[in-house]
Specification:
The structure holds two protein chains of two kinds. By secondary structure, chain A is mostly helical. In chain B, helix 10 runs antiparallel to helix 11. Chain B has a domain of about 45 residues. Chain B is mostly helical. Chain B starts with a helix and ends with a helix. Classes of the chains: A mainly alpha, B mainly alpha.
């Protein structure tokens, strides 16, 4: 299997198939990361697509030595989510909980899995922003500590501390909901 | 110095992700067992719940189509005036392709598509027409087919330009001329690509390996036909030279070549309404055993039931198609110039300069391949003698 660094170098040099391979490798987790941070599926899909189009547009400026590729990609995703949330705040749209409250008026009608995802999303929403960012990148996007640190511009020690505290908070929020 | 609990927690989390058991980790740190156990179980729970988040198959597919379209046509500043604000905004939106495809799938050959196919730039359905063209391009998987679609689109731009000129709409005609020019360049590029002999890669596969493609895009512009080869995998490579042995998913074994219905690399899908699951790409000539395409069932004059691998016939067929594309492009520029010149002749003196600018715009594309004319209309006959050499110049430039 080719190393990610080789693939990235190929993509930087304009190899579209290499970029497509990187896209395939990261598509699901970028989507998962964004889905958990935004209001609904449609927004997650729009943003996910936008992240990859932006990445494609600027891949020729990417330098491996500055940032691991995953961190670079998630940084784009992270910034897009922040921009999106700010824009929505200006538009004074309903906050997440309110939007969700309407959509889950009848949780029985939701599938069990959807409801468990909803619980997770709600639990993450209750975390302080720094903890939420770390928990999402670490547990949802499955980035390494180093990649999370690079993505968020924090030290690895800080990320570990935030990860620990976030896990403790999530445990409380999800307590009694484990295994459904 | 004692390690921090967050370091130990992180270590255990990593060890478990690597395949170690929870119990094994906890045994390493018995003094922290009570703290670590529930927290690590929480990470399992988070991972389980987040694993339920999966992109919808439709979104996965259209996102891939969108990416491939963006790869094929990176944004270029000079193309900005090529579409109306309404149209370009519509196209910039990622879901335009998906929505249009949905319309196509739902309506088939319905009235919306039919109406939009003749829409002019100043009509409401024009954005639908542009988006439909992008869908057709996205679904054209081989360079030759892509070039044909690009040529068709160029003809459409020429027809629009003619209509605007005939209606005496100076401003719209100027925009149409810009659009035509930009599209003409795309068609030139596509034809040059199609003339290349190396099959285009569609997925990145390391040399000597093959991976199935998640997405395969059917060519909806080709007529449906019974599929004679099941091709679930797309196995082109990026770095392997043409002589590298590849698993052939399209070539017919010799024993099947005597069947009357043969297929080639540009085989269309079995249906056009299902999410595409199969596709084929032009294979290296050494794996081909059939010669004709769906578009040209018997134009070579050779029996389609040949028992010998016939790469020459295939090349001839492709060469004939490319030649037709070139002629179509030439014709489109000729008729555009003629329409604009006619409009200029009929225009008021004060507007003649505007029409001349539009003529000059179209001429730029002709000059690009050595067919430029003077400001007055010059028939294509005058230029035909230099056509072949000018096309060759253009091709060598792109190679």
């Amino acid at each position: 299997m080719l190393s990610e660094e080789y693939l990235v170098q190929q993509a930087v040099n304009g190899n579209q198939a290499a970029f497509t391979q990187l896209y395939n490798q990261n598509f699901d987790r970028i989507h998962r990361y964004i889905y958990i941070k935004v209001r609904n599926q449609a927004e997650a899909e729009d943003l996910t697509q936008d992240v990859f189009i932006r990445a494609l547009g600027s891949i020729n400026t990417y330098k491996w030595r500055d940032l691991p590729f995953a961190a670079w990609l998630f940084k784009i995703a992270h910034n897009r989510v922040i921009d999106h949330v700010r824009k929505q705040a200006k538009e004074k749209r309903a906050p997440l909980e309110e939007a969700y409250a309407r959509s889950v008026e009848d949780p029985i009608q939701m599938t069990e899995r959807d409801y468990e995802v909803y619980q997770l999303k709600t639990a993450l929403e209750q975390l302080p922003e720094a903890q939420r960012d770390v928990a999402t990148l670490r547990f949802i996007a499955q980035l390494s500590i180093a990649e999370v640190a690079k993505t968020l511009g924090k030290s690895e020690g800080t990320v570990k501390a935030l990860q620990f505290n976030a896990t403790a908070s999530l445990r409380k929020a999800l307590r009694g909901k484990l295994d459904g | 110095m004692a390690r921090k609990i967050e370091d130990i927690f992180n270590e255990c989390y990593e060890r478990i992700r690597s395949g170690e058991s929870l119990e094994s980790c906890l045994r390493s740190y018995p003094e922290y067992r009570a703290q670590l156990d529930p927290l690590l179980r929480t990470t399992f729970d988070i991972g389980r719940r987040s694993s339920y988040i999966q992109p919808r198959p439709e979104f996965r597919h259209w996102s891939r189509v969108r990416l491939e379209t963006a790869q094929r046509y990176p944004r270029q500043p000079q193309q900005a005036p090529a579409a109306t604000p309404m149209a370009s905004g519509w196209l910039r939106h990622g879901w335009a392709l998906a929505v249009t495809a949905g319309i196509i799938i739902l309506l088939g050959t319905g009235s919306t598509m039919a109406a939009s196919s003749n829409a002019l730039p100043d009509e409401p359905l024009y954005p639908v027409k542009l988006a439909t063209e992008q869908i057709q391009l996205a679904f054209a998987v081989t360079p030759t087919r892509q070039a044909e679609v690009e040529t068709d689109i160029t003809n459409a731009r020429a027809t629009e330009l003619e209509a605007m000129a005939e209606q005496g709409k100076t401003e719209e005609a100027a925009k149409a001329a810009e659009r035509y020019n930009a599209q003409y360049e795309k068609a030139l590029e596509a034809i040059a690509d199609a003339e290349g002999t190396t099959p285009q890669p569609t997925d990145f596969v390391p040399p000597g390996t093959a991976t199935p493609s998640e997405f395969a895009i059917p060519d909806i512009t080709a007529p449906p036909t019974p599929v004679t080869t099941a091709t679930d995998n797309k196995t082109t490579t990026v770095t392997a030279p043409p002589t590298t042995e590849q698993p052939s998913t399209t070539a017919q074994p010799p024993s099947t070549t005597e069947q009357p219905s043969t297929t080639t690399a540009e085989q269309p899908p079995a249906t056009t309404t299902q999410p595409p699951t199969t596709t084929t790409e032009q294979q290296p000539a050494t794996t081909e055993t059939t010669v004709t395409t769906q578009e040209e069932p018997a134009t070579t004059g050779q029996p389609s039931t040949t028992t010998q691998p016939s790469t020459t016939s295939k090349d001839d067929s492709r060469a004939a198609r490319i030649e037709r594309m070139k002629k179509a492009l030439d014709h489109s520029s000729d008729k555009s110039i003629a329409a604009l010149t006619d409009a200029k002749d009929k225009a008021l003196q004060s507007h003649k300069n505007d029409w001349q600018k539009a003529i000059d715009t179209v001429n730029r594309s002709r000059e690009h391949r050595g067919r430029g004319t003077t400001s007055d209309n010059q028939t294509s006959t005058d230029n035909q003698t230099q056509d072949r050499s000018s096309w060759q110049r253009h091709d060598s430039h792109h190679r």
